[in-house]
Amino acid sequence: MAKEPTLSLLITLSTALFFFLPAQAALSSNFLRKVPRFLGKSSRSHYAGAPTYQYETRYFDQDLDHFGFSDLPKFRQRYLINTEHWAGPSAMGPIFLYCGNEGDIEWFAANTGFLWELAPRFHAMVIFPEHRYYGESMPYGSREEAYKNASTLAQLTAEQALADFAVLITELKINLSAQACPVVLFGGSYGGMLAAWMRLKYPHIAIGALASSAPVLQFEDIVPHETFYNIVSDDFRREGSLNCFTTIKDSWDVIESEGRKNDGLSYLTETFGFCKKLESVDDLFNWLSSAYSYLAMGDYPYPADFLMPMPGNPIKEVCKKIDNSPYGTSILQRIFQGVSIYYNYTGTVECFDLEDDPHGMSGWNWQACTEMVMPMSSSKEYSMFPAYDYNYTSDEKWCLENYNVKPRPTWISTEFGGHGFKDALKEFGSNIIFSNGLLDPWSGGSVLEDISETIVSLVTEKGAHHLDLRSSTPDDPDWLIEQRATEIKLIQDWLDQYFDRRRSVFYT
Amino acid sequence: MAKEPTLSLLITLSTALFFFLPAQAALSSNFLRKVPRFLGKSSRSHYAGAPTYQYETRYFDQDLDHFGFSDLPKFRQRYLINTEHWAGPSAMGPIFLYCGNEGDIEWFAANTGFLWELAPRFHAMVIFPEHRYYGESMPYGSREEAYKNASTLAQLTAEQALADFAVLITELKINLSAQACPVVLFGGSYGGMLAAWMRLKYPHIAIGALASSAPVLQFEDIVPHETFYNIVSDDFRREGSLNCFTTIKDSWDVIESEGRKNDGLSYLTETFGFCKKLESVDDLFNWLSSAYSYLAMGDYPYPADFLMPMPGNPIKEVCKKIDNSPYGTSILQRIFQGVSIYYNYTGTVECFDLEDDPHGMSGWNWQACTEMVMPMSSSKEYSMFPAYDYNYTSDEKWCLENYNVKPRPTWISTEFGGHGFKDALKEFGSNIIFSNGLLDPWSGGSVLEDISETIVSLVTEKGAHHLDLRSSTPDDPDWLIEQRATEIKLIQDWLDQYFDRRRSVFYT
Question: What CATH number did the domain enclosing A118 receive?
Answer without folding.
Answer: 3.40.50.1820
